[in-house]
Design brief:
eight-stranded mixed β-sheet; about 35% strand; mainly beta; about 425 residues
């Protein structure tokens, strides 16, 4: 570590795991430090579409209540790993449903899938009851934390749909329980099996990839929705013969809480029946809820106990949560931290945006106390730009594992590079 760079609380505790046979990229920073993950900006690769209905700036795809998902290191499509982003929702996006990516192998923002170019129903005021355009691609929606990635079949999956692209606040931009599958190898969108309650997945939900069972768990958290559920998406490449793919299994769940908060799947190192889905519930402080997966079935939620230590000054409902298998802890990053105040010490402007925290688990994940710890060093050569919208990051910060370390990659703005933080 460079002389002069210190961390108030970096733990040397490392949990050995099997990671891909790929080393950290040469441009990776020192431990506890941020750097730029791309040499360009999203605006440099934005799709150019002449249709007037697609004239909205590309920033809306990235920054209007939008989420992302990680393509892991070692994948066929992106051997160096990639962070894919998609979303926007209603008319603010100009109806564009493009996919963009941060390609860590080439250190560049890249276009992944061109948007549907029209024509549009109603000239901009129409609806699509099935949530798909005529070319089979999804009508854009606020994706929140709904995107997920299936690393087995290399598919980017958006577990929420929309029937309308106009701003319809009374129905939360007309959210649907439909889900959409983009196969990277075939470069084609597919529609997932429909949910019988078509409006279930509305504002602010979350999805996680279950690496043990190769399924996706989806949780809605719209408090206006009377029938909230946990839904399992499985058999993701199975053709149902009706133009849809995959299977959904529904589980009653009385309260998902945590409007718009992220979630993370915790794979227990020794016991499948101790796996957890952990998600945030935000108020004046962060509350973590946990849903145990026992026998492959979600159980009643529990509340995790969090201790003091290096606690974030504020918490934000759209913070990103990630599981570090190497450290055996949950990482927390929200991009909206205020600058710290320490008597006699001056922090650089915007330093709060460089703060990455972890929550260290107890021996018993459900009943013990999780401890806050700060991972960022004090001297940061690069500070990530702040997300423009107050909506925040959601799942646009994700963890990438290498055989000699981990990186948190964050896509914060359309007009600045993406950023990478090396986990100590």
């Amino acid at each position: 570590m460079t002389a002069g760079r210190v961390s108030p609380a970096i733990s040397a505790r490392v949990v050995p795991v099997v990671t891909p046979g790929t080393s950290l990229p040469a441009w990776a920073p020192e431990a506890g430090v941020w750097t730029t993950a791309t040499t360009n900006n999203l605006t440099d690769v934005a799709y150019t579409v002449t249709s007037g209905a697609l004239s909205a700036p590309v920033q809306r795809t990235l920054e209007d209540w939008s989420g992302g998902a990680a393509v892991p290191v070692g994948s066929t499509a992106y051997p160096g790993g990639a962070l894919l982003v998609h979303g926007g929702g209603h008319s603010s996006t100009g109806f564009s449903n493009a996919i963009y990516g941060v390609n860590l192998g080439t250190r560049a923002w890249v276009p992944v899938r061109a948007p549907y170019a029209g024509p549009f129903n109603g000239g901009g005021a129409g609806t699509y009851p099935q949530g798909i355009y005529p070319d089979g691609s999804p009508v854009p929606t606020h994706t929140y934390n709904y995107p997920a990635f299936d690393p087995v079949n290399e598919q980017f999956i958006v577990t929420r749909g929309a029937s309308a692209y106009s701003a319809v606040s009374t129905t939360r931009e007309a959210g649907l329980g439909t889900w959409h599958i983009y196969n990277l190898a075939g470069s084609v969108w597919r529609r997932g099996a429909p949910h019988p309650l078509n409006t279930l997945h509305r504002a602010g939900g979350r999805a996680v990839w279950d690496s043990r069972r190769s399924v996706i768990w989806v949780m809605t958290c719209d408090t206006s929705q009377p029938a909230r559920e946990i839904v399992r998406h499985s058999n993701l490449t199975t053709n149902n013969g009706d133009g849809t793919f995959g299977t959904i299994t529904r589980y009653n769940f009385t309260d998902n809480g945590g409007t718009e908060s992220d979630a993370v799947f915790l794979r227990h190192p020794t016991d499948a029946d101790q796996d957890l889905i952990v998600y945030g519930q935000f108020g004046t402080s962060l509350t973590l809820r946990a849903v145990p997966i026992v026998g492959g079935v979600p159980q009643a939620r529990a509340t995790l106990t969090l201790s003091g230590g290096n606690v974030p000054a504020t918490v934000h409902r759209s913070a990103s949560l990630m599981w570090s298998a190497r450290r055996g802890s949950i990482l927390y990053y929200d991009n909206r931290q205020p600058d710290p105040t320490t008597p006699g010490f001056s922090f650089p402007a915007g330093y709060g945006r460089a703060l990455v925290y972890e929550l260290v688990p107890p021996a018993n994940w459900l009943t013990g106390t999780w401890t806050w710890r700060l991972l960022s060093v004090l001297d940061q050569p690069v500070i990530p730009s702040q997300h423009i919208q107050t909506s925040g990051l959601y799942s646009k910060a994700r963890l990438f594992a290498y055989n000699d370390g981990e990186l948190v990659v964050a896509a914060t703005r359309h007009d600045t590079p993406a950023y990478a933080f090396r986990v100590p």
